[in-house]
Structure formats: structure tokens, C-alpha cells
Design goal:
Helices cover 71% and strands 0% of the residues. It is an all-alpha fold and 266 residues long.
Length: 266
């Protein structure tokens, strides 16, 4: 077992090995009480949250923050591997070997002399290779159900399309959007039918985005950020007039919204 001096020598030698050693120290019987009591299940939310924080750092363009957040993700990977190692299931070397093997197997156009000249060809071949790895599974079985709903919808629709279950053109998908919109409008507010039809409409719009080369998750996140930005502008404009949005009424708020929108475009 590594000694506690591993932490003191973190600037020497291989940093990844130091990280592995430090996690082992933290999980040792005389290590950190918090780290020692963690399990795969207790840490699952942390892994998701760290991934989202890394994405936020990417979007803000802060390299120092991104390096820090990627380190937090790496910490989660090593911690999970250490927990499994203590149970005799697998260790960090098994994790590393598995991903190396997978990357080589799924990139035959790089490592095995085949060809793939476009990203689309790469993704089609990637999905086909994944299906051969678990031939007993259905095409959609390997998509994680815990993904954000829009990303989940895009992934399963893309996989179905790779098997030929696909609209010919984006105009065909737009026709489906009109159909699903009418079906939603025919339901009663708050009913199970309304929820079902809204889901159908959203799924169809995800396919519009896929056909148009737009990531629906990022598109909606961008719209949310835009809405927050403009609403904050409205609040500031209202405060400058000695008012609040709550007591203004919809016409006044619409006027401030248009003002914020025009200012942003300018």
C-alpha cells in the first residue's frame, strides 16, 4: 500500500500514478472517513455533476477551469476503480486496457487498414462495430437511459436511422411535426394523452435537429441561456424605472422583452 508520502511528492514522477496512490491512501483503513464510506452508488451523482461542470468550463473557454474540472472527472474514475479493486472486481489498469482495446477495435480505418473518409462514415462504422460486440442485444439497448432526454432521443433516433428506419428528407420530418402538433392540440390540458403527444412532438423535433445537423441538447441549452440573459435585462430595466416585473403586467413586460432582444441583436 502506498505511504502518505505520496501526497507530499505529487510534483515528482508520473502524476497519474500519484493520483492512483493518493486515492488508495484516502481509502485505506486509516484514511479519510468520507472517502472510505463511498460506494459506486453513492458516487454516481458526483460523476454526472463533474461532467456537467466540465462542459460549463468548455463553454466559457476557461482553460484553467477546464483542466481543473477534467481533474475532478479523473478523480471519479480512479475512485470508482479503487473501490472495485478493493472488492477484487477490477482495477485502474483493467479500465485503461479496456478503453485502449475498444478504441483500437472501433477505429479500423486508423489501425486496421480500412477506410472511412468522413465523420459520418466513422460514426456509422462505430455503431456497426458496437452491435457486433453484443450481438444478443437489440440496436437500442446500449443507449444509457440516464442521459438527458433530448440527448437520449437523438441517440436512439440516430441508431434507428443507421438501420434504415429513417425519413427520406427533412421536409418529411416537418410534415410529421405538423401532424404531431395537431394531435397535441386535440388533447386536454394536464391529461396523460397530452403528456404522450407532447413527447411525440418533442421526439419529432429532435429528428428535425438531427436531419439539420443541430444538437438538440445544445440548442435548448443555448435558448435557456438566452432567455435568462434577456430576462435579467428586463429586471434591470424595470429596476431603473423604479418598478418590478411582477407588478408590471404582460404588456409592459413584452415591451421590455423586445427592448432586451433589440439591444442584444445590436
Amino acid at each position: 500500500m502506498p505511504g502518505r508520502g505520496a501526497a507530499a511528492n505529487h510534483e515528482q514522477g508520473d502524476a497519474f500514478s500519484e493520483l492512483v496512490d493518493i486515492i488508495a491512501v484516502l481509502r485505506a483503513p486509516d484514511g479519510c472517513p468520507w472517502d472510505r464510506e463511498q460506494t459506486h452508488m453513492s458516487l454516481r451523482r458526483n460523476l454526472i455533476e463533474e461532467a456537467y461542470e466540465a462542459v460549463d468550463a468548455i463553454e466559457t473557454g476557461d482553460d484553467g477551469e477546464l483542466a481543473d474540472e477534467l481533474g475532478d472527472i479523473l478523480l471519479q474514475v480512479v475512485l470508482h476503480a479503487q473501490i472495485a479493486s478493493e472488492q477484487g472486481r477490477f482495477d485502474i489498469q483493467d479500465v485503461s486496457r479496456a478503453i485502449v482495446t475498444k478504441l483500437v477495435r472501433r477505429h479500423p480505418h486508423v489501425f486496421a487498414g480500412t477506410r472511412a473518409d468522413t465523420p459520418a462514415e466513422v460514426m456509422t462504422r462505430w455503431d456497426a462495430i458496437k452491435r457486433t460486440e453484443k450481438p444478443e442485444s437489440g440496436l437500442l439497448d446500449g443507449v444509457a437511459r440516464t442521459l438527458p432526454a433530448l440527448t437520449y432521443a437523438e441517440k436512439i433516433s440516430r441508431r434507428a436511422a443507421s438501420a434504415g428506419f429513417e425519413w427520406d428528407t427533412v421536409d418529411d420530418v416537418w410534415d410529421k411535426v405538423v401532424e404531431e402538433t395537431e394531435e397535441l392540440k386535440a388533447t386536454s390540458a394536464g391529461s396523460p394523452e397530452a403528456e404522450d403527444e407532447l413527447g411525440d412532438l418533442l421526439f419529432t423535433l429532435v429528428n428535425v435537429g438531427r436531419k439539420m445537423g443541430v444538437d438538440p441538447e445544445q440548442a435548448l441549452r443555448g435558448t435557456c441561456a438566452k432567455f435568462i440573459r434577456r430576462y435579467s435585462e428586463m429586471e434591470r430595466d424595470a429596476a431603473a424605472e423604479g418598478r418590478t416585473l411582477e407588478g408590471m403586467g404582460i404588456e409592459g413586460m413584452e415591451a421590455l422583452w423586445r427592448k432586451a432582444k433589440e439591444r442584444e441583436r445590436a
